[in-house]
Amino acid sequence: MLKVFDSALLRTSQDALAELKTLANIIQSSVEQIEAVITANSFNFPSPESTFTFESEAPRMHPAIQSAGLLITSAAAQLMTLVRPAPLTILDTTLQVRLKVFKARP
User: Fold this and answer.
1) Which contacts qualify for 25-31: CB closer than 8 Å, 24 or more apart?
2) Which helix (H) or strand (E) element contains residue 34?
3) Domain parsing of the chain, residue ranges
4) What is the pTM of this model?
């Protein structure tokens, strides 16, 4: 019985590692897509330290950069869920829901 359990644990662990690698690859390829669009269009990608203007944010409005950005944020959220202990994920989600409920009250 123990060998079956160990085998299932190992398979699950390997599946989780494969998922981590896949998500990291999605992020990497999306960053490369952003880099290609920036290079092709001679954009300057805005730094978080730069002053916000509509002109400075123009590169983020490019459809290919928006698409890559959505993939990055989705993969990053899944990565956080995979690597964080489940109780922390549940606590974080609970706090987000609770804050939204309190903000919604008049």
Assistant:
1) 26/71, 26/72, 26/75, 27/71, 27/72, 27/75, 27/76, 27/79, 30/68, 30/69, 30/71, 30/72, 30/75, 31/68, 31/72
2) helix 2-41
3) 2-104
4) 0.73
CA angle 66, 67, 72 (to 5 degrees): 95
Q: How far apart are CA 82 and CA 89, in angstroms?
A: 9
CB 22 within 8 A of CB 12: no
Structure-token pair, residue 36: 């290609």
pLDDT digits (tens, 9 = 90+) for 51-87: 999 998 999 999 999 999 999 999 999 999 889 998 8
Do 43 and 62 contact (CB within 8 A), yes or no?
yes
